[in-house]
Write a structure and sequence with these properties.
The termini are far apart. The protein has 89 residues and is mainly α. The chain is elongated, with a radius of gyration of 27 Å. The longest helix is centred in the first third of the chain and has 27 residues. The chain is built from four helices and no strands.
Length: 89
């Protein structure tokens, strides 16, 4: 029983050592950090404003196209509320 317990402790220590080494490597390597950090896609505040305005307009266009194809009854309640929100901005 003593040998079995000793082997279990050694395996556990080995696994913990490997885990510590991996954490150290991933925390120091700058290329790995970029995987978890979102890439900045705006250069200026104007770029961000224009991109968000374009996203809103694209969503409005999609909803209006859906209305044009099948009528107002084709929109779900959630889509109607969203169209009202977007039209007020």
């Amino acid at each position: 029983m003593g040998l079995f317990s000793y082997l279990n402790k050694m395996i556990l220590i080995t696994i913990l050592a490997v885990a510590v080494i991996l954490v150290y490597f991933f925390s120091r390597n700058p290329s790995v950090k970029n995987i978890f950090k979102p890439e900045e896609k705006y250069y200026t505040i104007d770029d961000e404003f224009n991109a968000k305005r374009k996203e809103r307009q694209d969503e409005i266009d999609r909803l209006l196209s859906k209305i044009g194809d099948n009528g107002l009854d084709d929109l779900t309640e959630k889509e109607r509320r969203r169209l009202d929100e977007l039209s007020k901005k």
